[in-house]
Design brief:
Elements: H1 2-30, H2 35-47, H3 49-60, H4 64-89, E1 92-93, H5 96-116, H6 119-123, E2 129-130, H7 132-153, H8 170-201, H9 206-231, H10 235-260, E3 263-264, H11 270-289, E4 294-295, H12 297-316
Antiparallel strand pairs: 1-4, 2-3
Transmembrane segments: 33-54, 75-96, 102-122, 134-153, 173-192, 247-265, 271-291, 298-316
Keywords: Membrane, Transmembrane, Transmembrane helix
Membrane topology: Multi-pass membrane protein
C-alpha cells in the first residue's frame, strides 16, 4: 500500500507541475507580469503547500522535529538537488536582479533562522526553541518579501517573456493552475505518507525523516515544476520557484507553525542549519563567478553531489 502511495503521488505531482507551469506562464505573458514574479508567488506558494500542510499538522501533533526538519531539509533539497537536477536538464540563466536581490534575500532568511534557532549559544537558554516571538518575526520578514515582490511586479520589463510560452484563454489558465495545485498538494501528501510509513517501519528517527524523506517528498512539486519550466525554456519560473519556495518555507511556513505552538529543536542541529546557509551561498557564488550568470551542467552536478554528501553524513550519524 505504501508503495502505491509513492507511485500515485509521484504521478499526480508530475501532472500537476505541468499544468501549473503552463497556466502560470500563460497568465504572466497575457497580463505582462514578469515571469520571475509568477515564480516567486503563485508557483512557489503552490508548490510549498505540502510543506505548509505537513509542518503545521506536525507542530499541532507535537512533532516539532518533523515540522522544522521538513522546512530545513526541503530548502537544502531545493537549493542543491532541484537547481542541480534542473541545470543538468537545461542550463539555468540567472538574471542580474535575481543574483543581486532574490538569492541574497534567500541567504538572509537562512541566517535569520540560524539566529532564531540558537537560544542555547546566544542566550544561554536550556534548549533551542522557535517560540511565538520568533514566529511573528519570521512573518514580519514574509510581509517585507511580499512587498518587494509586488514592487517588482510594477516593472514588466524586469522579467523576460519567452516566445515559447503559449497564451491560453483565462479560464483554461485558471483551470490549469487550480488543477495543478490540487495535483501537487494531494500527490505530495500521498508521497510523504508512503515514505514516512516505510521509514518508521525501519525505525528511523523523526528528525532524519523530516530532513530527508519528508523534505524530499514535499519538495517533489518544486523539482517537477522547475524541471518542466526549464524544458519549456522558461528558466525564470524555474529559479524563481526555488527561491520563492525557500523564502515561503522559512518566513511563512515556520512563521505560522512557531506562532501556533513553540517548536523545540531536538534532532535538528547547527550542522543542518549551516548547511542551509552554505547551500544558498554556493548557489550565489556559482551564479556570480562562473558561467556568466548561468548554472551550467557541471555546476549542477556539483550541487547534486553536495546534497548527496550531506545525506550520506546524516545517514552515517544515525
Amino acid at each position: 500500500m505504501d508503495i502505491l502511495l509513492l507511485i500515485g503521488g509521484l504521478i499526480l505531482i508530475l501532472i500537476g507541475a505541468n499544468g501549473l507551469t503552463d497556466g502560470a506562464a500563460s497568465i504572466a505573458k497575457r497580463f505582462r507580469i514578469p515571469s520571475i514574479v509568477i515564480g516567486l508567488t503563485i508557483v512557489a506558494f503552490g508548490t510549498s503547500a505540502p510543506e505548509l500542510t505537513v509542518s503545521i499538522s506536525s507542530a499541532l501533533k507535537g512533532s516539532a522535529d518533523i515540522a522544522i526538519g521538513n522546512v530545513v531539509g526541503s530548502n537544502i533539497f531545493n537549493t542543491l538537488m532541484i537547481v542541480g537536477c534542473t541545470a543538468l536538464v537545461a542550463p539555468i540563466v540567472i538574471t542580474s536582479n535575481t543574483l543581486k536581490k532574490e538569492i541574497p534575500l534567500c541567504i538572509l532568511s537562512s541566517i535569520v533562522l540560524l539566529i532564531c534557532a540558537n537560544d542555547v549559544f546566544l542566550d544561554g537558554a536550556s534548549r533551542n526553541v522557535l517560540n511565538t516571538t520568533d514566529g511573528l518575526l519570521l512573518l514580519c520578514f514574509f510581509a517585507i518579501f511580499m512587498g518587494y515582490t509586488f514592487a517588482i511586479s510594477s516593472h514588466p520589463d524586469s522579467g523576460s517573456q519567452p516566445e515559447e510560452i503559449r497564451v491560453l484563454p483565462v479560464w483554461r489558465s485558471t483551470l490549469y493552475i487550480i488543477g495543478g495545485l490540487a495535483g501537487l498538494i494531494f500527490g505530495g501528501q500521498w508521497f510523504v505518507d508512503g515514505a514516512s510509513n516505510i521509514a518508521r517501519n525501519l525505525g528511523v528517527s523523526e528528525s532524519i525523516i523530516g530532513l530527508t524523506l519528508v523534505a524530499g517528498g514535499t519538495s517533489l512539486p518544486e523539482l517537477a515544476t522547475s524541471v518542466v519550466a526549464a524544458l519549456k525554456k522558461n528558466p525564470e519560473i524555474a529559479i524563481g520557484n526555488v527561491i520563492g519556495s525557500n523564502l515561503f518555507n522559512i518566513f511563512f511556513v515556520l512563521g505560522c507553525s512557531a506562532s501556533i505552538t513553540p517548536l523545540g529543536l531536538n534532532g535538528i542541529t547547527n550542522f543542518d542549519l549551516l548547511t542551509l546557509v552554505g547551500s544558498g551561498m554556493l548557489l550565489w557564488l556559482l551564479g556570480l563567478f562562473f558561467g556568466k550568470r548561468t548554472i551550467t551542467r557541471i555546476e549542477g552536478s556539483i550541487l547534486v553531489l553536495c546534497y548527496i554528501a550531506y545525506t550520506v553524513i546524516l545517514i552515517l550519524n544515525i
